[in-house]
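Q: Could you write out the predicted structure for this multi-component system? I'm mainly interested in how the pieces pack against one another.
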Amino acid sequence: MSDSTVLQSSALDSLLAPLYFALDLWSAAMSWLGGATGLGLLEYGFMHRAILVGLCIGVMAPLIGTFLVHRQLALIGDALAHTAFAGVAVGLFLNAVIDLGVTPYVTAVVVAVIAALCIELISEVTDAYNDVSMAIVLSTGFALGTTLISLNAGGLTVSVDQYLFGNLSTVTAQSAAILLVLFAIVVGVVGLTRNQLLYVTFDETAAEVSGISVRWYNRLTVMLTALVVVGAMQIMGVILVAAMLVVPVAGASQVSRSFDESILVSVVLAELAVLGGIGVSYYAGVTAGGVIVLVAVALYIATVLAGKIQTALGEETTPEVEAIVDEGEPTGD
Amino acid sequence: MTSNTTPAATGDSTRDPTVADSARDPATENAPHVALDGVEFGYTATPVVEDISLRIDPGEYVAVVGPNGSGKSTLLKLVLGLLRPDDGTARLFGEPAHRFDDGDRLGYVAQRASAAKAMPITVREVVKMGRYPHVGFGRLSGTDWAVVDRALETVGMAEFSDRRVTRLSGGQRQRAFIARALASEADLLVLDEPTVGVDAESVAAFYDLLGSLNDDGITVFLVEHDLGAVTEHADRVVCLNREVYFDGPADEFVESDALARAFGTAQSVTGGDV
C-alpha cells in the first residue's frame, strides 16, 4: 500500500532514500507505541506517516505564520495555497501528457514559490501589499488549476479531491519524505534568520535603517510560506491550509507576553489541533483537515477567554517609571 | 557616483565630503556623519525639498524645525538613505546613504505611530533588536545582554523589561525605542519627532538624556516640532521649509527672523504651537 508510487519515480526516490529509512524507524516506533497503548489508529502505516506529517506541520505553519500574521499578511497563505493547486494541476497535466513521472507535490512547490515571488514583486512595484493583487493571484491560480484539470478530464477528478481537501490515507512514503525536506528547509532558514525576520516584522523602517535588506527578507518570507503551504496541503487540503498559518498564531498572541513565548504557544496550540483533529477524524470517520481547523478554532476561542481572564487578574501591578538616568552611559565596551 | 565637488555649504569645509568612493577607507572614520550636497527630492514633479546642503560632523547636536509639510520627514529619510535624492548627493559616514548598511553606527527612533503593532513582544525583546546589527545571524552574547540591560536602565525602563510593549503608555513606549537606539551603541542618533505623544515630564527627562549622550560624544540629529525644546537644548538649528532658511547656532536662530520667514507668519519661539 505504501509503495504505490514507486512505479512513478526513480531519481527522486534514490535522493530520498535516507528519509525512507527514517520513516521506517518512525513507523516501527509508532507501532510499538500502538502496541503499548492499545490505540487502534496506530495500527496502520499510513497513520504513522500522517501523524509525522501533522507534527511537522504543527511546527512549521505557526512558525512562519507568526511573521505573516503580525504584518497583516494572514491571507497570503490562502493565495499561495490556491496557486499550489495550480502547481498540482500542472504536475498532473505533465504526467498525463509527457509522462514526466514526478509527483504533483514537486510541481506544486515550484509553482507556489514562483507565485510567492510574483506577489512580492507586485507589492514592491506598487509599494504595498494590497488585497487586490492577492485576490488576483489567488483566483488566477485556482482558475489555471481547474482549467488544466478539465483539459485532461477522466480519471483525474478522483485524485484532485485529495489535494483540495487533504487526505490522511494518501500520505505516501514519498510525499512524507518530501515534507521532511520542506520541514528541514523552513525550520533551518527561520532558525538562522529569526533576528532579521523579527526586526522586519516589527519595524520595517528601523530594520532597513539598521542595514537589513527588507526586500530580501520579505521575499524569503513568502517563499518559505509557499513551502509550508505545499507541505501542509497533503493533509489539510488547499482550502483549509491557510488556517494553520493563522489560527494558532492568533490564539498565541492572546495569551503571550513575549515574542518567543508566542511562537512556543502557537506551536503547542497547532500540535494539539493536529493530534486532536487526526484522532477525532479517525474515530469519527470524517475528513481530518476540517476537524483539525475546528479544533484549532476551539482552542483559539479558549485562548481569547484565557487572555481576558489573564488581563483581569494581572491588572494593576504597574511598576514605577524610573527617572531617566542623567549621566547616560550607553557606550559600553 | 557624483561629479559635483562643491563642499557642503555649512560650517567649516576643511574636508571634502565627496572624497571618492572610500567606503572602507579608514579616512571615512573622520568623514562627516551626514553630508547632503545640493539635494533635491520630490514624490511628484514638484520638489518637496530642494537645494539642501547640510553637513553634520561628529559630536554635533542638530535639530531640524519647520512647519508641517516643510519636508522635515523627507529630509530625514534622505539622510537615512530610505529615499534617494533626485538631484545632488546624500552621504552617511562618507558612503552614499542608500548603500550604507553599517547598522551598528546608526541608531534610529521613529515617530511613535510607525511601530504601534499589536504583536506580543516585550520591552526587552524590542531593545534587544538594537544588538542585531552587531550579532548578525548569531545569538546575543552575555556582553550584548549587558548592553541591553544598561540601555533599559539608562531610560529608566528596567522595571518594565518583561512588559508587553502594547501595554505601555506613549511615553514609556518611546523610552523603549530610545533604549533600542542606545543598545545599538551608535555614533549617530537620528530621531523623528521623538516626543510626540510623550508626557511633559518625560520630555524634559528625555532632553536631559539626549544632552548627556551628546556630551559623551554621540552625534544627535533630530526633527522636532517643539520649537522651545529645540532652541533650549540643541546646539545647532536647521530651519526648513522646502529650502534651508536658517542653519546655525541655536541662540542666533532665536534672534533671527528665519522662523517668521519659514513659517510665513509671526511665530514666537516660546509660544511655539505648530
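A: Regarding packing and overall arrangement: The beta strands of chain B are 34-41, 49-56, 61-65, 87-92, 95-96, 106-109, 188-192, 219-223, 236-241, 243-249.
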